[in-house]
Amino acid sequence: MNLFYSTNIDSEIVNLSEQEAKHCTKVLRLKNGDSIHLTDGKGNLYESEIIEIGLKKCSVKIVNTIKEYGKRNYKIHIAIAPTKNIKRIEWFLEKATEIGIDEITPLICEHSERREIKTERLNKVISSAVKQSLKAYHPKLNVPAKFSDFIDKKFIGQNFIAYCENDNQDLLKDVYKRNSDTLILIGPEGDFSDKEIKLAKDFGYTPISFGKSRLRTETAGIVACHTINLLNEEK
User: Fold this and answer.
1) Does 82 share its domain with 131?
2) With a threshold of 0.85, does the pTM exceed it?
């Protein structure tokens, strides 16, 4: 399946963006009459046929629509501190998208070494992963939020905070309830501060652990994402 991403699908004729058109015609060398699939990132998968190819354009006609393609009955939201090396957070976004994630919030903490990120670049990483992993839902990347501003927002579902301090936390796999929406907080390289941990507990967040190993920020995010998906796949 060749999957392309477009946010501008409002009729049965769709003009791919210049970048997508180039990939379609120059890289994959597809021609008029060839079949491709489109997604709008909102759960719709469009079976389409190429009808016109130009120098920098490619138009397709939608022949069939599959709604809620790959929809799950739970949502995963991970609020994670951006790493000092931005490549690591890009890696997290790519792999989490491939595994299955719904929402990401860059979390600015007391010990954060990186406090600014370019969401445009990160969204491109997510979009590429959506196409590569054949997803019809595009994860939402929120603007960075300060921990103190984010923590008191109402979230319907299970709320967890993972940190390195040995507090006899339960393993995520033992406390997560299947088919439940979940929000998991992942701290920076220097971990959450004591103040942040206490604040999260005061707002009802359950402390969790991912095991005995001490994980990097981006690795912890992947383990959290994979654990929730795996638990929901069990019969």
Assistant:
1) yes
2) yes
